[in-house]
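Morning!

As promised:
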Amino acid sequence: MAKSDGASPESMETFVKGLLKENPVFVMLLGLCPTLAVTNSVINALAMGLATTFVLTMSSAIVSLVRKWIPKQVRIASFILIIATFVTVAEYIIQAISLDVHKALGAFIALIVVNCIILGRAEAFASKNTVGASILDALGMGFGFTIACLSLGVVRELLGSGSLAGFPVLGKSFEPWTIMILPGGAFFVLGLWLIFFAWRREWQKRKAAAPAFEIREG
Amino acid sequence: MDEVRPQTVAPSGRDDERREPAAAADGAQRGTEPAANREAAKESGATSMILAMGLIGLISGVLIVASFQLTLPVITKNKAAALERAVFEVLPGAKTKVVYEWKKGGALVPVKHEKSGALYLYAGFDANKKLVGIAIPAEGQGFQDTIKLIYGYSPSCRCVVGLKVLESKETPGLGDKIESDPAFRANFKALKIVLGSDGHSIATPVELAKKGKKEKPYQIEAITGATISSRAITAILKASTTAVVPVIMRNLTVLAKEVR
């Protein structure tokens, strides 16, 4: 892995890779617990995604900032301490914004501490890169996680409640598929999205190989 | 596009991968052999470790306190609004409310504004200014953390007519069913709580029954798989009604008047 610099042209790639190419949920299969648990509605999915992005970005920035002063032996403990701090801050902010969202997310806000995406990025990226690059990486990964949560949330709320972000869209005649807002539905939808992403990767690989073939022919 | 497997993830936890730039950072000389680990342990002593952890802990503490102080006024306002809504939710039919401070001696004094630290009861009145019932906040230990709830007591029916959990951290999917399970919620539509003939004890204190075993109107049917949370709700309700219902019944003439 090349050491990326916040100012290098690589920085855009540092941000973009987390969105789809290295999406933490669909490609790395990290952070599945909150992804499965709180994506039964668009609002919950969005709140979870943004809360995680906030914690990820802030903790990555701080970890990167203090990376040179933390002794190797206590680095994981230090990272967890930093992450837990921002999770607590995020919990207060969510309570101030909306008590209903706070209640809907429940214990899963506190569980952001053990979301492996965050510790993973702190250990794999922020602890050896500049602050700028770490923030970009964290934002990319955070938005990637939010995209994943929303991908599940939109499908589950649409089919499970016939609405989107609380607004009914499928009309009264629609019979909600209750399974979709239950845990089982989360697994079905995640599975289908994983199939889609695996298929997309295959397709891209084939597309990348195709032009070379054409040139040879011409 | 090249290989999609992110190389930043899989080997990240391994020592050799992360040591290389880190070594450059603190200027130490290290190999890739496991011996480097022992060397590292020697050079950064206990003092620097304690110092680093202590400093991070200190900064974390300051950050948490600061954000707590900053968000506290908004959160308090949100909670007051949620409580206000909950009062009308647990007293079906109520349109207006009067707040009573519940003094230590058992007297009820109407107040305009709530302060923290005091106990309050909320008398709800319907459109014809008739007393619907009294909403009572209560709390107690749940499975994980304190459960805070509010319930409505109707003196005419002598039963609990509604219950809403305000705050809980019960296990997702199991204990948190105390808020969502329709069968469990149905327990609190007409839960009989009758005062004994002596005037200060409950003739039929609430008790927990197993799922499908509810026989008496003062029993609460438990949720399968959430016994501890069901038990917690029962205990909170039992303690609260034992204390409050005699006070309500004694002060019924006071409460029935709508004070403006």
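Strands of chain B lie at 96-102, 108-111, 120-125, 131-141, 146-154, 159-167, 191-192, 207-209, 219-221.

Hope this helps with the figure draft.
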